[in-house]
Amino acid sequence: MERKVTKLEHCHTEVLVNVDKDLWKKAQTKAFNKLAANVTVPGFRKGKAPANMLKGRVDQMRVFNEAINDVLQPVYEDVLREEKIQPMARPSFDVTKLSEEELEVKVTIATRPEVELGKYTDYKLGKEKVEVTDEEVDASIEALRKQNATIAPKDGQAEKGDTVVMDFEGFVEGVPFEGGKAENYELELGSGAFIPGFEDQLVGASAGIEVEVKVKFPENYGPDEISGKDATFKCTIHEVKQKVLPALDEEFIKDLNIPEVKTIDELKANRKEALQKQKEDAARQAYLNKLVDEIKKVSKFDIAEEIIADEKENRKKDMENRLKQSGIDLEQYLVLTKTSQEDFDKQMSEEARKGLESFLVMDNVGIKENLSVSDEELDAELTKMGEQYKMSLEQIKQALGQQLPNFRHNMLMQKIEKFLYENNK
């Protein structure tokens, strides 16, 4: 195929392709046969009439469109392979010449962004020194006790942290509303599961009593019939339950099943070490984020808008999935946060651009410093993982499958982060 390659501004490459005549003819024949198979000519079975009779009954533009769709992918793959182009977003195709004898297509491809990397070493931003207090260690152990707490019936009044088992029904202006009724519902007081003010009014309740809870629904909360309205919930308390925390003794420590931890002192040391690592990791990441922001200020980026648009859509889909797990959709989220669609799209685009710039800083530092992950380094890391899961190196590789390149890339990013952290203050 004849091709003319032109480099355009803003990281685009234009390739004008004159499609091979034989390929174009075959594609038209295939398209015609496919469309003709559904054409009926009197006196013949569907699609079985002679070609010269069928030709006048098949729209030539439909043949062209079908044939073009058939050849675009192989043409595009051939362009990428022969011209060694790395696409970074979906290409655009324009037909510039079209006849039964000729097909010329213009392919416009967004290519790798160009970066003029500024200073990336010898910054003095100040690395935070972290320490873990005895109070934080005690709080961590208390959290472990709460995670392993049992629930038991409680005599007397409910307190925050207790769970009430109740029937309830909600009314707005004296009328029950949809979704406002439940039986034997278990609600932990202080959990924030219900609208503000609801749980507070159940503190002090006890089994066998009825409580009338009065609240006001927030604006833009649910259907119009309850949004911003005053509501009354009639609650019948069946039972109060409390959390019973395990005693902080060696039996509890044994149940935790933490390697090499058998005594209270060893548990405190273990928690302190874990908290120290968490704090150090968080401080290190905060420092790296700040450092990359400084590098971005002295760097220049040329990123095709298609790449930003693709990243924006990826971020939007990711957010929609996370919202779905929380039981709401994007439209509800926009209402609850009082955000317009326009502002949301603008925010997503800005976040996409910033994220891409951060990635490009890291990537280009790796290129300039010739940082890479060798097969030996990859195998060594996978072997460590295999020891943890009692799997061989080959089993780990098979388990990762198509994710193996991502694993290698993550290792490279860690190596780049290490370089930046060690070469800045």
Describe the structure.
It is a single chain. The protein is of the alpha+beta class and 425 residues long. The chain has three domains: 2-112, Trigger factor ribosome-binding domain (Alpha-Beta Plaits), CATH 3.30.70; 150-244, Chitinase A, domain 3, CATH 3.10.50; 273-422, Orthogonal Bundle (Trigger factor, domain 2). It contains twelve helices and eleven strands. Strands 6, 7, 8, 9 and 10 form a five-stranded antiparallel β-sheet that branches. It is extended and about 95 Å long. The two termini are 55 Å apart.
Question: What does the secondary structure layout of this molecule look like, with pairings?
Answer:
Layout: E1 2-8, E2 12-18, H1 21-36, H2 51-55, H3 60-83, E3 92-98, E4 103-110, E5 114-116, H4 134-147, E6 150-153, E7 163-172, E8 175-188, E9 210-216, E10 230-244, H5 250-256, H6 264-297, E11 300-302, H7 305-325, H8 330-336, H9 341-368, H10 375-389, H11 393-400, H12 404-422
Antiparallel strand pairs: 1-2, 2-4, 3-4, 5-11, 6-10, 7-8, 7-10, 9-10
Relevant CATH superfamily of the largest domain: Trigger factor, C-terminal domain
Give the strand tally. Answer: 11
- Low-pLDDT segments: none
* CATH architecture assignment of the largest domain: Orthogonal Bundle
State the major sheet: 5 strands, antiparallel
Q: Strand fraction band? A: 15-25%
Q: Can you tell me the overall shape?
A: extended
Topology as a string of helices (H) and strands (E)? EEHHHEEEHEEEEEHHEHHHHHH
Helix content: 40-55%
